[in-house]
Amino acid sequence: MAKILISRDGVLEKTVQLTKERMTVGRHGHNDIVLEHQTVSGEHAAITTILDDSFLEDLQSTNGTFVNGHRVGKHFLQHGDTIKLAKYRIEFVADGIRPISGVPALPLPLAPARIEVLNGSNAGRLLELNKPQTSLGRAGVQVVTVNRTEAGYAAVHADGDRVPLLNGAPLGKLPQALADGDVLDLSGTRMTFRLG
Q: PROSITE patterns under this entry (predicted)?
């Protein structure tokens, strides 16, 4: 299962396995992860892990939550992300092992989304993303899956030797969050992700 490495002033203070589906971080003792410093809010942030995906959410903290130097409200965590909570530096380490959940997650309503083909013989074709997982491409050549989670949509290179592109950059084997207008390129076929 994924874990976080918590450091302060360059010293590793603790390593915490993300064993629960939702773990809160804050100064108060009832949090799953307690960071005892006055610059940390009583209930500062939460990390939600569903299957292989982890999401960080700021809980309206006073000093904010930052990932890789950017202030975030909600963020899809990827291996190696650096989280900053007040005086603490937290490294997210993903290992692909799923946490055990006693209660199945209830899907939250998401904004409808679709993929629109931009070029080629299927230009203008729309594909509604109404399933938990939608596959794009050809098996054995290049496959991208788009996964629906409670936090939104994420794309991952699932199969094939050819590396697909997301907004011109290689799409890896770890899920990457999709935003409205993002462009996927599968062997020259370009398609855009649309929300709403």
A: FHA_DOMAIN
Q: How many CB atoms lie within 10 A of CB 182?
A: 17
Q: Which amino acid is at 89?
A: R
Cα–Cα distance for residue pair 152/50, rounded to 1 Å: 12
Choosing from 42, 62, 94, the residue where a domain stops is 94
Residue 104 domain-assigned (yes or no): no
Strand order through the sheet with 165-166:
126-128, 113-117, 189-195, 183-186, 165-166, 169-170
Segment 119-171, tens digit of pLDDT: 988 889 888 888 888 888 877 777 888 888 767 888 888 888 888 999 999 98
Instruction: Provide the token pair at 185.
Output: 């390129």
**Domains held by the chain: number:** 2
Paired sense of beta strands 33-34 and 22-26, if any: parallel
